[in-house]
Design a protein that fits this description.
The chain is of the alpha+beta class. It has 8 helices and 11 strands.
Length: 221
């Protein structure tokens, strides 16, 4: 993310200043209302990012996995975090402090443009999710989420016999899909009855990822 936008000297400064830390499941990378501290780059694992609005509890809006970043909105907007990021599975995360990031943004126009492009991409994803909530049945949304999780784990090219450990509980899944936990449970039970998957606790067995992908792209009736 940074290397393609900054010069050799600035990349050396980043490598010298970055702090790498391991996080355990359930830990917060940052919390709502605390001062923005910089950029977080996920090297391993998955986190759940929640967004908070005045007088409303935080809502899970997206998953952030290896190769993605957290906190770039705070670097641009500041001074306080408008949500939180909670670790769903063990993570390795690199942190680059706010002062250094802001200095790099002032110095490198290309980096500022990449930040703006990232914000635009996130906005487009939010708009697409809103459209899916409006038009797609819960079952299709569940299938899309499971396929996406398989792809995050590197199983997206595997068509048969995929096993997946869900990084979140059913309540978090329902929140991410904008539905109720009991509605999610009924959708999963129906998919299991149809042979699309089987579950045992937090683990899913998917006989055919191809069939599940077809389910996820079904057009609304």
């Amino acid at each position: 993310f940074l290397c393609r936008s900054c010069g050799h000297a600035d990349n050396a400064d980043v490598n010298a200043a970055k702090v790498t830390r391991r996080y355990h499941r359930g830990e917060f990378v940052f919390s709502h209302g605390q001062p923005c501290s910089g950029l977080f780059c996920i090297a391993l694992g998955t986190t759940a990012q929640r967004r908070a609005e005045p007088e409303l509890p935080p809502v899970l809006v997206r998953l952030v996995s290896a190769g993605e970043t957290l906190g770039y909105r705070g670097v641009l907007e500041g001074p306080l975090c408008a949500g939180d990021a909670k670790v769903l599975e063990p993570c390795v995360i690199c942190h680059i402090e706010l002062a250094l990031m802001q200095r790099l943004l002032r110095r490198h126009r290309a980096l500022a443009q990449r930040f703006q492009a990232r914000l635009a991409t996130e906005l487009a994803a939010v708009e697409a999710d809103l459209a899916r909530v409006a038009w797609l049945p819960v079952r299709c949304r569940v299938a899309r989420l499971i396929v996406g999780l398989a792809e995050r784990k590197g199983d997206g090219d595997t068509q048969d016999g995929v096993e997946l450990a869900l990084p979140m509980n059913r309540r978090d899944m329902a929140e991410l899909l904008c539905t109720r936990p009991e509605t999610l449970s009924r959708a999963l039970q129906a998919m299991e009855s149809d042979g699309l998957l089987s579950s045992a606790g937090s683990r899913l067995a998917i006989p055919s990822l191809r069939r599940l992908r077809q389910e996820s792209t079904s057009s609304p009736a």
